[in-house]
């Protein structure tokens, strides 16, 4: 926490932007996660804990945690399986304990094994998803919840069909607010605006939200046909008394500890939440202008502490979330103070001015999220990845396609499969080299093995051996090799004792151990 307040002039306005991004996402994820009887405040609790508690313990400079869309299906299924939300909270607490243990055992190292092309593809895909998912909200069609990342939606539509359907339910008032909001955000992104002292502290996102509220109130009073209400506005639970506030919090039912399903759910939450957090940490570090490296084991412990606290207070599971983190970075956040302040703002505003927050049109918030998406999926990113060659570009593109057509983790798995293919392909080709010449008028072929020769090279070495011409001299040199897998030694031995003799190929080897092949 050293010097945490030194950048407050940048962190305070950034925290306000993150708060405005996080508010609808917390509500949307809670609405989708808790089913027929939504526990909306569970998302707010998770958002506050993700900001304040995880922010305090995390080693991430700019990462922001909260409830994640990637856990929606797991949470829905878990509540149904365990029979109550209170039993589910027990699983969240246990999941947090498992994450803390995993952090102490060094499991955070997993985060270092995701290729850069896949992480950048994930960022671009999330950006495109935000843009596509916010189009319906921009035109006033708010059937799907804000924060949905999955291709197949809970309202029975998918990402693309929702857009077409939205234009059958256009709200002129929403479009006016959305267009003006986007114009303000684009204006605030211009360099000359950043030189004005006032607008260094007052972010464009705040202007957009205030403008949206004022415009809709004007519509209500003077142009009723343009006015928006109901599902088109933020919908927070409002407390009329202290007892109502107490009712927002639910607590774990620890009698559920005797239910073995609780532990299965806890393990699933811990695994998925940890993966999502590690992926987001990697992505956030790439977006960080200072390129700080987050200690991943410390992050797992921080996420674990966050989930223990969230579960104890009635909140959803938390993970680090790239949408909020990127909003923090784009808004000029400089330290974890912006993360912590956004959590405090979320709590204070929900408790003190819920009626004011319930006047915010979703169209205004959709415009903010769309700008976040645009910055994550910029054209320059695609150009840079294409310039790196197909071994980088194809995993990047397939990650994007996978995330858009499935969900975050499945899309990452698809991109990872393509990245591994190129790694194997490169390994297949590059662990030895072939030199061709002549000796006493006969062909001379020299195969120089590299330092590490694995079973992955078995196929290509076998292919090269069969291309050696008859009546030639073959030299296989393993003098530079530290290790040669048994599979490769077996291929060489079989070639030397069978194929080479049949084709009159003289074989000379250097530092190639003989192995016993089928009793020979």
Automatic annotation (TrEMBL):
Q: What Pfam families does the database record attribute to this sequence? A: Sulfate_transp
The UniProt record lists the keyword Transit peptide: no
Instruction: Please give, as recorded in its UniProt entry, the membrane topology of this protein.
Output: Multi-pass membrane protein
Biological process terms from the Gene Ontology for this record are: transmembrane transport
Which stretches are transmembrane? 12-33, 39-57, 64-82, 88-110, 122-139, 169-188, 197-220, 262-281, 344-373, 393-424
Q: What is this protein called?
A: SulP family inorganic anion transporter
Question: Where does the protein end up?
Answer: Membrane
Tagged with keyword Transmembrane helix: yes
Major localisation: membrane
Q: Where is the SLC26A/SulP transporter domain?
A: 9-389
What does the record list as coiled-coil region(s)? Answer: none
Q: Which UniProt keywords apply?
A: Membrane, Transmembrane, Transmembrane helix
GO cellular component terms attached to this protein's record:
membrane
Report the InterPro entries cross-referenced here: SLC26A/SulP_dom, SLC26A/SulP_fam
